[in-house]
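Methods — Computational structure assignment.
A single polypeptide chain was analysed. Its primary sequence is given first, followed by the predicted tertiary structure written as structure tokens.
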Amino acid sequence: MPTIQELRQKAQELKMQEDFKNALTLFREIWEREKSERNGYDLAQCLRKTSNYEEARTLHQTIKTNFPNFHSQRIQNEELWLDYSEKIKNYQNPNLLADAEQLLLKTNKYDKYTGSIYNKTVLNVVKSLIYEGNNSIAIEWLEKLDFTTLDNIPFKNYPSDRKTFFIHYADVLIKLDKHIEHIEKYLTCLNFDGIKHTEFKNKIIEDITYGDYVSRSVLALYLKYFKEEFYRRKNNVYTSIYNPNKITLISDLSDFEFCPASFAISETFTVASNAAWEINEWNGEKKYLIDRYNEFQKSKSINEVFNDNFLIAISDTTEKDFTPIFNSKLIFNNYNGLNEAYFSNSTDTIRGKPDYIFENANSERFVVVEKFTKRTSEKIQTAFSNDLVKVYGYIFELETLNVDFGYLIYWYWEYEDIPMENGSVKKKIKIKAYRIFKIEKNINNKSKLENVIEKVKSFKQSKEFSVDGDKISFANKCLHCSVVSLCNHKTGKFNLIKLPYDVNSLTVIQEPTLLKNE
């Protein structure tokens, strides 16, 4: 007969695999053989996970009776999670709102133990209210939340609680036909006026509109930008990383070419990535060049490499574009940015690590940079200058790599409608097209890079850079920039950029609220 420790180890393994049904059998046996607080907790949790709510409640009472001096926070939380699972996740519960109110009284959104229960309770109530068409009441419940306390990590293909909050936020605005009005109010409060106000409003409307359909996920992302900006400015929440002696990275040169303000902000503050926002929308199907390269090594078939996506027509051109890469040897891989190796120029004043370095049969080395973008720019004849600068940097500055030329690949994606069982429509990201550019190692390209390097060097030394405030503010560019919620220059009202970046030079008006009378 296995020992209790052996049973517990196996049961925990099953629980980690989310096989709660089989884990439950083992936890029952453990509890029968040894009744303890810990064993009771494990069994209670498994009972909840398998929807044995009544038995779980009986067990909770047994634990309280048999162990009156036991005040484990874990057991108390488990009882709250049981209330949530049995009453709040049950949308058929006629007492949903009352039960939710009672559960909120027992929890605290700022508490590290019960905060998640509080937040998920509100989010589930809001979802139910929206489904029932009670959008005005949904507003009141949304305002019970502080979005900064919400978990920002997605679970499998499910969005994070923070993203769910903004999705619900967008849902309510769309259903009340208040989304355009709300966008206008936010832009006004952020000091947009005149033509800039109109340009940015129209661009946002264009981005969120698909025929007669308004994308809640795209609108949600803009609402996230807005609320993050007001939160930061109101609470002065900025993490400074400015270091005047920081070695320039190849990516810094690219950022500067894209926008000097974006460069200055990235030099000054920690900028959170939006990568987690899109994870669930890819449904686990985001394929990088490395994924397609590895597939080709197995199948030697371009059709197999692109069999995940029927929006890209496989042709002789596709084979001509990718075969030179797939038939080469991969000698450096940093597609996910996790490779710790850095390369530098001869003076160690510029460093970088490319996405990929390959070597072909002619012993020529080439660098590959890939970009995923939703912009509808697949018809462009030349690559964007900031992306070219990145490739130039790897070719000309990182001499130890001995790179002979480079490729720049754009993967263009769009949202695809997926009908759900409940009649709603879910958006899924799919690659719709690609463009690949070959970048030569010539004097003209080297001169372009040297020009950017000199500007960045001068900016870092003088700590000031003059721009045309009106021209640097460009809706299509700014609204797709990773630092948009930290940028003052998007308003078009500033002609000077400073290092470190002076984020407080812009004073915003009070944030608009999501109220029934809006």
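Note: The first strand starts at residue 209 and ends at 210.
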